[in-house]
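Q: What would this chain look like folded?
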Amino acid sequence: MSDSPAHPPEHLVLAVPKGRILSELRPFLPRVGIEPEPAFDDAESRQLRFRTNLPLLSIIRVRAFDVATFVAFGAVHLGIAGSDVLMEFDYPELYAPLDLGIGKCRISVAEPANLLEADHPEQWSHIRVATKYPSLTRRHFAARGVQAECIKLNGAMELAPSLGLCRRIVDLVQTGRTLKDNGLVEVEQVAAVSSRLIVNRAAWKTRSMEITGWIERFREAAHAVPSE
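A: My prediction, written as structure tokens:
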């Protein structure tokens, strides 16, 4: 009777975010030994899962907010996500061992410039804001004893004050140009943001050596990049 064939190792899957973070992450991939198939860099491709030069590693490319969900629920093993996403969802299934030092920006409260002179954030007791971070926003203001009524929007936050939806927004800010172009100014920073390598905790326990190896590869790549 012949021996049964060995069960092949399970593919390791890495989730990366579309958009701005991916452009900063892309140079990291060859530094950690990952070369995606050509479709990964094809702007016209609608493909979402990609092979790499490593037979047992593939990459999926999804919306930034969805990276954390795919990793937390164990659909993929590793991911790159902004700390804004991690703070919003606060999944206990996620472990974030490494700050990559990319995707740096901030979450801020902003309001129309014409409110600034008479407005005093330290005197707020109740505010209404438009944001895609309702959980993070409520926690931030609750810590100050301020009740925050959050209107969930997924984009075009800057329109909310001018259309009378609310007077203030809580959103990601990088350069501040979009706020300025829409007549808004920052009045309070909620949190600094950068991108993290995240790991599914269950996968880390069951595939400890393999995943720890990838953490170290990304750590070395991050440390090799001069800080700004």
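The chain has two domains: 12-103+194-224, 105-192.
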